[in-house]
């Protein structure tokens, strides 16, 4: 085990301890919370170290970076999955689909239309093993600079379109205000808002299994878990002091 392996393993252990405490605080099991390693700007070596430490879920923000890294044979893991979590342009959908099992950043119906079009064009015999593709509706609940549906009417229209197009929507994603304290009422409210939207939409669209709440990052994932997160997206805290920093 090299120094990068050791540092990342220790970081993950520390994060899992925090997940355990946050889940316990809200009367939940830690097993109900998935830990994603956000690998933006991270090297193949660092990603392999995270995999070696037990991570099986990875998230990328940029299509080009995701394709460059996860097309490398060194990152072809049969039991790991890659999710797209960053802003996705319509002209990049075709490029990313072969690599991802889930897209978190579905923030407009036009993007859903492009995804549906590209999925329909896939050759069934050549589809990745991780089909059907899962989609999460991105909702703007707090961070002003971020995208996402801003009204419940918009979310309803998106789910209605998903039904018509036979898209597999599995839940919702949001970002809390980055400028606020992680334990502030503002951050709690951002996460509570998404949870309540999920509950209302599940009643309105019972044909969908809207179980996923992708919310919480390095600075606020404990608060997110307390408010019902089922998937936390951790980059900085998981890779802290690793890679080039570990060699210094």
From TrEMBL:
Its cofactor is pyridoxal 5'-phosphate. Residues 12-239 form the Alanine racemase N-terminal domain. The keyword Disulfide bond does not apply. SUPFAM superfamilies: PLP-binding barrel. It comes from the Bacteria. The modification N6-(pyridoxal phosphate)lysine is found at residue 40. Pyridoxal 5'-phosphate (PLP)-binding protein, which is involved in PLP homeostasis. This is Pyridoxal phosphate homeostasis protein. It comes from Treponema maltophilum ATCC 51939.
């Amino acid at each position: 085990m090299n120094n990068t392996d050791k540092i990342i393993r220790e970081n993950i252990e520390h994060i899992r301890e925090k997940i355990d405490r946050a889940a316990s605080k809200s009367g939940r099991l830690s097993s109900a919370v998935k830990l994603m390693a956000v690998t933006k700007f991270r090297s193949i070596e660092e990603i392999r170290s995270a995999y070696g430490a037990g991570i099986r879920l990875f998230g990328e923000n940029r299509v080009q970076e995701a394709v460059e890294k996860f097309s490398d044979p060194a990152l072809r893991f049969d039991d790991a999955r890659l999710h797209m979590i960053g802003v996705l342009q319509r002209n990049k959908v075709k490029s990313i689909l072969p690599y991802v099992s889930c897209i978190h950043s579905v923030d407009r119906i036009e993007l859903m239309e492009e995804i549906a079009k590209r999925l329909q064009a896939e050759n069934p015999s050549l589809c990745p093993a991780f089909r059907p593709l899962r989609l999460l509706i991105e909702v703007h609940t707090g961070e002003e600079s971020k995208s996402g549906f801003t009204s419940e009417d918009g979310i309803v229209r998106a789910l209605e379109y998903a039904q018509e197009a036979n898209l597999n929507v599995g839940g919702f994603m949001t970002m809390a205000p980055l400028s606020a304290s992680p334990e502030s009422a503002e951050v709690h409210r951002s996460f509570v808002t998404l949870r309540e939207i999920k509950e209302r939409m599940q009643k309105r669209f019972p044909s969908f299994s809207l179980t996923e709440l992708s919310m919480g990052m390095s600075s606020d994932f404990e608060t997110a878990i307390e408010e019902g997160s089922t998937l936390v997206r951790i980059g900085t805290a998981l890779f802290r002091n690793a890679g080039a920093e570990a060699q210094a």
